[in-house]
Amino acid sequence: MATTRPWLSPSVLPGFGLTLGFAGTFLTLIVLIPIAALVLKAASLPLADFWRIATEPRALASYRLTFGASLLAATINAIFGLIVAWSLVRYRFPGRRFIDAIIDLPFALPTAVSGIALATVFAPNGWVGQWLTAIGIDVAYTWVGVVIALTLIGMPFVVRSVQPALEEVEASLEEAAESLGASRWMVFRRVILPTIAPALATGFTLALARAIGEYGSVIFIAGNLPLRTEITPLLIVIKLEQYDYLGAAALGLVMLCVSFLMLLAINGVNAWRINLLSGRRT
Amino acid sequence: MTSKLPANPRNVSGRRATPWIPFLLISVSIAFLGLILIVPVASVIGYAFSKGFSAYLVALQSPDTVAAIRLTLITAAIVVPVNTIFGVAAAWAIAKFDFRGKHFLITLIDLPFSVSPVIAGLVFVLLFGAQGWFGPWLQERDISIVFAFPGIVLATLLVTFPYVAREIIPVMQLQGREAEEAAVSLGAGGWTAFFRVTLPGIRWALVYGVILCNARAMGEFGAVSVVSGHIRGLTTTMPLQVEILYNEYDLAGAFAVASLLMLLALITLLIKAAVEAFGPARH
Amino acid sequence: MFAGCYKPLVILTVVLAAGCQGRDDKTSSPAETSAEPGSRVELLNVSYDPTREMYREFNEAFATHMRAETGVEVAILQSHAGSGSQARAVIDGLDADVVTLALAYDIDAIRLNSKRIQPDWQSRLPDNSAPYTSTIVFLVREGNPKNILDWPDLLQPGIEVITPNPKTSGGARWNYLAAWGYALERALGGDIKRLPTASPDEIEQAEQQAEQFVAELFRHVPVLDSGARGSTNTFVQRGIGDVLLAWENEALLAIEELGADALDIVVPSVSILAEPTVAVVDSVVDRKGTRQVAQAYLEYLYTPVGQEIVAKHYFRPRNAEVLAQFQHQYPELRMFTIDAVFGGWSKAQPYHFNDGGVFDRIYATKAE
User: Fold this and answer.
1) Which residues are registered as beta bridge partners of C65?
2) Do B87 and B164 form a contact (C-beta atoms < 8 A)?
3) Residue A278 has what pLDDT?
4) What is the ipTM of this complex?
5) Are A85 and A200 in contact (CB under 8 A)?
6) Which of A7, A210, A260 sits opposite B100 (nearest CB)?
7) Hey, which residues 103-122 in chain C have their CB within 8 Å of chain A?
């Protein structure tokens, strides 16, 4: 089928040309042309220079922090976000509606505000920070602070991706498994987890992608020390402040490529999930 | 697996079997959210009112703050409808038709998610800045894009680009296309099929996407900061105004504006809750 | 049936186009506004962070002055952020009539990268176009519990020093150079004036010692905020660190804003004369026809009224009479200039702060 498939499968529905045309035009204007400008700018660097800028020790250290902290934050979100989503979907408890409503707040908070608020709370003299300092944990201005900021901004992605998927898990399937003597843990692992896995993966990736690019909230709570607590977006800003547009574009391109590949991978997973679900339903 | 009849009916009715599990999970949820979300948000509100309610109101009435609120609302009023129309059009093309390169297109739509806000601002500077591709052309005609209102709108459009599309595409895909095909073959027009058949099915996703898009549009900081020029009362949005006040040692004022942003977000969330409560049931 | 649905596209285009044109409608057409009574002129002053409060007052004074003298209504818009990012914005097309930045290098950068400012800008106004100065002092906690009195005390074990990032903050560059200058002077036997006559070997040794001193200093820095105000907030609001390296005017303002019972100023034995500079952006004022007013605006900074406002906001005025009048607020200390010790910004910036410069080297060796 794939070899002889035409570009567009015939359909009785109207509007393909219009909607794709509009979406395509708009996509080109707002996203593709600007990003092409970035790519072309970076491409005007000789390859050797590009490589040197992209792999200098400070850049490497910043990738390590940016990608490492983002991975850690997305993982924390995957675990705790799943628990939160589960609690919201499966249980009725006082304050449930309130919690459900505030999940989206990190989207609404300007990132600078999140950063300032977190720095205020986790600083050694802050509400939470004073207790943590007392037991010897420094959060503000260390990589831990970066992870906390990234966890905050990525949290809604996981919860909101997993919630609908959890609602979809068919109770009858679970009950059948239980009636067959499966333990609750086994039901979770064998029945529930496979069903929500793609949604969890989507949430994880979105949280990760968002975290990698994050700037506003992190600079307030990271110490911004070169090689230690300096994230890649900050390095880009520093290059800009030195009027080094090429260097900034080069680092931007590196980040863009990594994130793009990650998104491409997750969309592959998603396509597989849609096929799976629609296959099961028909 | 040997067939074992339920030794205990408790297992079938399930949920009550181990009461400590729900308790544990709910506690973990609340502790997690409390630490990373509720406490910081509470601190924002706490500082906002630290000088009393009247000081809070005064802080929101300074001319620069009012101008920032207006700019943010106008920006959102342009960005959200535009991205909504785009999202619906893109979702229709992607979900209702089969064509090659579809997954690539979806990934391109997702691309802005992975673009650091700093880069989202930078690209428009590279295009429209005085040293950029179109810079000299624009300058001859005395048109400002970056460091003016259009630049703020463009950067916000780019950052919030995927939110609506991303929410409704999967729902439309799961919906299938049989219903619309039936409607069209019975003589309904394209618009009718969309409004009568498709829209009711994607309503929640659409509302949710619009809310997210709106929240992000009003709260965007990094990208706007690069293209804004920080001109007081002219090109500062609410998030930038928060930073300005914070840097002027006006913690109460800064967090007053921040709390207003949260309030605007909560209002949209309340609208969503109201629509859900009064609208027909979800399933 | 989908005919006519390109409407959204049309609307979008119209909206964006309308946005593009909604500019400059307040200023009248170019090539005039030459101080006609009753005309209205809008100036944009692009400045750096710590001048917010000062220019707010100065703008009012200047507007009143212009109204009384010429009948021209002047409205001044302000933009504040880090000095480097403001210079970049002007290079990229932010239409500033005047720039009032933290250091001459940033204005030079505008000249080099965009040609929007004429090469002779620094000689067009008195005092190298620096109408006010400041210096770098220490801000410590009430009562100076760690007993920090001069630069060497910053290197005591356990002392945490707060300074912004010299890569992004103009003030931080002054901090860094002040520390460097102190160490250089110590290496030269306590007399910085010997620098021009010292032998090359001696200078090289002194520079090595200075680099060691500054490297050791940055080993005591736990946070590098991107701007001066960020650092002040870190030090004061978050309670991080034992000493803040700050502009003298920022330190005095912080005490005024945040209470003298929480903070003390410590004046080191020697520091740098920080010279924030100002300039008219030639290409903008010529296009907008605002040169006369913009020039008058900057010149007004040098008048007694301007100098008094400057002093009220803790900058050091150039005018000797005003300086004498406000003498009580400025502690005595010896100051060296960047021109004398570092050969000006055009040498100091690439050597110390550009990629691969001394500052990068400090952190590269620190990591090993």
Assistant:
1) none
2) yes
3) 58
4) 0.82
5) no
6) A7
7) 109, 113
